[in-house]
Amino acid sequence: MGLLQRFGHTVVASVGDPDALLEAVPPGSADIVVTDVRMPPTFTDEGMQAALKLRRAQPGLPVLVLSQYVEQTYAAELLDSDRGAGIGYLLKDRVGDVAQFADAVSRVAEGGTVIDPEVVRQLVSQTKQPLDRLTPRELEVLGLMAEGRANGAIAAAMFVSEAAVAKHIASILTKLDLPQGKDTHRRVLAVLAYLRDPRTR
User: Are 66 and 105 in contact (CB under 8 A)?
Assistant: First the structure.
């Protein structure tokens, strides 16, 4: 809580169970919800289920979920909610990197998508189709996209131009057969191509 306040966020509620979480977030009361996957009473997936309920009740409500381990099914459920806008899934280890965690909170609150790099690495290593259509360079770009990076940040990380990144992304979206449309978050659908493959569950 103190960490969020240090970076200019106002914490309107701090709760310890899923029922209290649902009650603490009436429509329009929060810019982002940060929750653990595991909450009382069973410490399995109560926090995730509460987050999904909030997303169903308030489409587009930014939610950042923290997990001790990579749980790809939970990540897939979260990304599937409301086309994946304004969502984040991070391992708790990332909270130790204060600047990285603060950046993730801000990006999710602004409607972005942030997926933990370890989730991306596991998915890339396990998934064969349709990702086998992509070149190694395109897989690298897709991995950075799944981490929530914009084209400029991808270009900087790969030491290429933004035009080159845009070309790679266009190729990725074409090879993954993602539908076009102004209301479709094609970048998020590219991440879902990882998570929906049964071999990643």
Answer: no
Q: Does the global pTM surpass 0.85?
A: no
Q: What pLDDT, in 10s, does the model give residues 118-153?
A: 766 665 555 456 777 888 899 889 888 877 788 999
Enter the tokens of residue 52: 């999904």
**Order of strands across the sheet that contains 33-36:** 33-36, 63-67, 87-91, 113-115
DSSP state of 178: P
Q: Looking at domain 1-115, does it have CATH number 3.30.200.20?
A: no
Residue whose pair of structure tokens reads 């169903």 in the numeric block? 56
Q: Do residues 3 and 101 make contact, with C-beta atoms less than 8 angstroms apart?
A: yes
Domain 116-201 is of which CATH architecture?
A: Orthogonal Bundle (1.10)
The encoded tokens of residue 136 equal: 């190694």
